[in-house]
Amino acid sequence: MAKTAVTRYPILGPIAERWSPRAFDDRQIAEQDLTALFEAARWAASAFNAQPWRFVYAARNDPAFETLLACLRDTNQSWARHAAVLVIAAAKTTHEDGSPNGHAIHDLGQAMATLAIEATARGIHVHQMAGFYPDKARALLGVPDGYEPKTAAAIGYLGDRSRLSEKLQEREAAPRQRKPLDELAFRGAWPKRG
Questions:
Q1: Can you give the pTM of this predicted structure?
Q2: Structural domains in the chain?
Q3: pLDDT by residue (tens digit) across 148-176?
Q4: How many helices (DSSP H) and strands (DSSP E) are in the chain?
Q5: Which side of the chain, N or C, has fewer Cβ within a 10 Å radius?
Q6: Looking at the predicted structure, is the pLDDT value of residue 134 above 90?
C-alpha cells in the first residue's frame, strides 16, 4: 500500500513516497542495498564536516538483532521484530577538540533523512522511533562516552498490515497529514499572531 504525500507543490518522488510503516514482510535486504543506505547517510551535510553520526545495526538473521530489539520499547518491539534490519543511531556530542557540538543532533537527523530517502528510492522503508531505551542501548551495544543514542529505526520491505494489532492497523491505514506550509515556513520574519 503506497502512501504518497499529496503536496501543494511538486517535490522529488522519493521524498513524497517516504513514509514510516510498521508492517514489514520477511524479506531480507541485499547487502549492497543495505550498505548503500549507510553510504547515503555518510554523505549527509554536517556542521564543520564533523559527521557526528554513528550507527549500530543488525539484520534479522544476525545474532545481534535480538540485542537491538531489546533496546526498543515493548510497543515498538511488537512490530519491529519483523523488519529486515534494526538500527540504533547515536550522535557524537563534542568536536575533536572537546568543545560541545551543538549541531550534532541536527546532523544526525540529516543523516537519517538521507538514509530514509535512499531507502525509499530503492523500494525499502524506514520507520524511525523515539520509543527506545537510550541507556539500555548504551550498555548493550557498547556505545562509548561522548556519544548519545538518539533514535532507533526499523528498515525493511512493506508487509501485510493484518499482522499488526487492530490499533496499529488503523494507524497504518490512516492518510498522511502535515501542517499547512504557512504554519511552518515564514518569509523574512516570524509572523505576529494576534
A1: 0.93
A2: 26-158 (3.40.109.10)
A3: 999 999 999 999 898 888 998 898 888 88
A4: 7, 4
A5: C
A6: yes
